[in-house]
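Title: Comparing notes on inverse folding

I've been comparing how different people in this forum approach sequence design from structure. To keep things fair, I'm posting one structure and asking everyone to reply with a full sequence. Here's the target:
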């Protein structure tokens, strides 16, 4: 892939392509390094971000909010801070991070799963305010809503690429969803892994393979089939939600959770709960039943407030 392939993408001169098996971005005062590069233009970032007395450290994560009005996840290690998606305004993001003792000024990068507004609404303003690198596929970048505006420092990767920010390794993989080129991620640090299983209709074998061995799972439990069927959504919307490229139902979540359980799965966070077609307590009860009393922390993320901060451990 090259810049000439981008066609109508805004500001193509700013795009950097990661044609490498693993790309490393060091923060603090270290320079970026790239493992096993092939041909193409490569991106590097040099940053130095002082401590602000933050409350998060080690390898931890928090969902800043989840639902149809906005999604964002913060992942933190002792050397890096990244967001996965940002569907919140800059004001909302600042407020939610401040609840955790965090500041947007310490962010190192944003990773985007796909272009739907509840995942990208606040990405442009944030990227322009901090000149943050925004990692996304070419299809996602081409399809961003016009309201996002310019992204001054976009970084284009392909599904399957692995990118290192400090000591966080972000691995991408394709998912089936009604978007241009959607991906999801696992994030690993010091032998521990968080897997994101959200915004796809049916879990492929690839998805299960990439999520296997996760010590923490963030998993969608979008709708109850009965509530969707008897609700006010028109038939074509119901069909899209239930389809392979739609969303996971409570039953789908339970089946995926059961298939991914292993002895060192410690935390499960349910996300993207539909306000109209699901109930948090129903999703929680079904997940608890699927876990069958195993020693796993189970939590449901909501739209209005951040989740607790979860330590990722084995």
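Reply #1:
Here's my take.
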């Amino acid at each position: 892939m090259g810049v000439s392939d981008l066609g109508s993408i805004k500001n193509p001169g700013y795009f950097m392509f990661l044609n490498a098996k693993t790309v490393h971005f060091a923060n603090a005062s270290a320079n970026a390094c790239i493992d096993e590069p092939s041909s193409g233009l490569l991106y590097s970032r040099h940053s130095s971000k002082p401590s602000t007395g933050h409350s998060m450290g080690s390898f931890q994560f928090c969902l800043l909010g989840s639902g149809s009005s906005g999604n964002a996840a913060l992942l933190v290690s002792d050397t890096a801070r990244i967001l996965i998606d940002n569907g919140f305004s800059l004001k909302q993001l600042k407020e939610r991070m401040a609840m955790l003792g965090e500041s947007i000024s310490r962010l190192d990068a944003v990773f985007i799963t796909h272009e739907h507004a509840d995942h990208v609404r606040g990405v442009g303003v944030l990227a322009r305010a901090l000149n943050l690198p925004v990692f996304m596929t070419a299809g996602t970048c081409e399809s961003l809503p016009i309201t996002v505006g310019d992204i001054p420092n976009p970084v284009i990767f392909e599904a399957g690429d692995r990118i290192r920010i400090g000591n966080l390794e972000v691995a991408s993989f394709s998912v089936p969803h009604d978007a241009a080129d959607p991906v999801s991620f696992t994030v690993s640090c010091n032998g521990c892994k968080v897997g994101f299983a959200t915004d796809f209709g049916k879990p492929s074998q690839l998805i299960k393979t990439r999520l296997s061995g996760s010590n923490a799972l963030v998993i969608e439990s979008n709708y109850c089939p009965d509530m969707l069927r008897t609700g006010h959504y028109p038939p074509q919307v119901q069909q899209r939600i239930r389809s392979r490229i739609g969303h996971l139902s409570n039953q789908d979540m339970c089946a995926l959770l059961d298939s991914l359980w292993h002895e060192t799965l410690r935390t499960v966070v349910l996300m993207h709960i539909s306000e109209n077609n699901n109930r948090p307590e129903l999703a929680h009860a079904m997940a608890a039943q699927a876990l069958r009393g195993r020693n796993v922390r189970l939590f449901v993320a909501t739209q209005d407030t951040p989740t607790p901060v979860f330590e990722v451990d084995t």
